[in-house]
Amino acid sequence: MITRIIDEKSVRRLKELIDDSEKILIISHTAPDGDAIGSSLAAMHVLMSIGKDARVLVPDQPLANLRNLPGAKEITDACRYPDFAAKLFDESDLVLCLDFNEPKRVDRVAPLLESCKAPKVLIDHHLHPSDFAEVSISHPEMSSTCYLLFRVLCRLELFNFIDKNAAECLLAGIMTDTGNFSYNCSDPELYIVVSELLKKGADRDRLYSRLFNTFSANCLRLNSYALLNKMELFESKGAALITLSREELNRFHYSKGDTEGLVNRPLSIPGIRYSAFLREESDFVKVSMRSVGDFPVNLLCSEHFGGGGHLNAAGGEFAGTLDEAAELFRSLVDENYSKYIANSNNTKGKK
Ligand code: 5GP
Ligand code: MN
Fold it and tell me: Ligand 1 within 6 A of 288 CB?
């Protein structure tokens, strides 16, 4: 039905590890998004239905729009329950690491992960996985960990254990990591997987409404303000920048998740090839970047903004003021243009 992409040795070893385990801990990255939560909960549902004691632990609370996914109430947030997080690690026979490529991405959970004696398995689609897991199923060509996890579950012969709840969680991650099927989703096999998830009862329309179309009035106003008053365009250089200070965020009663997706908006302008959003936090500046075509925002983030990520979606934590981060971005616009845009033949994404 779908191409085999995962190597047989990893599948066999993962199967043994699951068979030999009773308590399985599933963890994902900080500021967990739809793919992190979707893949973790889907794994939890499937493992529970084969009789395992499976728990999900994340470094901090998921966004409000993810808290209605089936099983989300069972998630432990290490920020609020650090002692329980440590107990979960102590007791686990196996740790599944989903949707992140290196211990640093689990933030406050990293020391627990690194000192944990249980075998670790990584299932992820980010570039450059670090070598911390006994089994590493890393496929950056997959648009989401949920898409990859579906394939892993099939190879483990667990397809029949993907129930409606697991299917809904997997579809949530596929939808969020592709911007509701608007990027990274030209792989025809993705739609075979989506079709299977729909057949299992996942409700795409309800997920769309919850994940993409539920906003508070403050959130709508903050995003409108950002686009109207704070978007800087460097049109001849293909760049866009939005910054929001603490004062501005407070003015609109910002709550976590309110600026999700804002960084993508300038990319809808013809000729804009990459976009940055800088949000002032209490002790650093949260950087988010997106691009179209072959513009490598991951390099920009890793070289200058304390982070990394994918070619077209990256981020970081800048150790400096908001003005410094913005000034640095502006100072790189000319250089980025000569380096990545001027001679690029890649017109994909150019509108
Ligand atoms: P977002 O802009 O949604 O926060 O992040 C987009 C992508 O950028 C993430 O999926 C992740 O791959 C990467 N990313 C975001 N923040 C960081 C960071 O602080 N460090 C690193 N290495 N990657 C990040
Ligand atoms: Mn992901």
Answer: yes
Which residue among 310, 312, 318 is best mutated to probe the pocket of ligand 1, counting the most ligand atoms within 8 A of its Cβ? 310
Q: Is the pLDDT of residue 350 over 90?
A: no
Q: State whether the beta carbon of 279 lies less than 6 angstroms from ligand 1.
A: no
**Tokens found for residue 155:** 């190879």
Q: Give the pTM.
A: 0.87
Which residue pairs from 111-116 have beta carbons closer than 8 angstroms and sit at least 24 positions apart in sequence? Answer: 112/78, 112/85, 112/86, 113/27, 113/89, 115/89, 116/89, 116/92
Q: What's the whole-number average pLDDT of the chain?
A: 95
Question: Quick one: tokens of 83?
Answer: 């002692």
Residue 268's identity, in one-letter code, is: S
- pLDDT digits over 16-69, tens only? 999 999 999 999 999 999 999 999 999 999 999 999 999 999 999 998 899 999
DSSP class of residue 46?
Answer: H
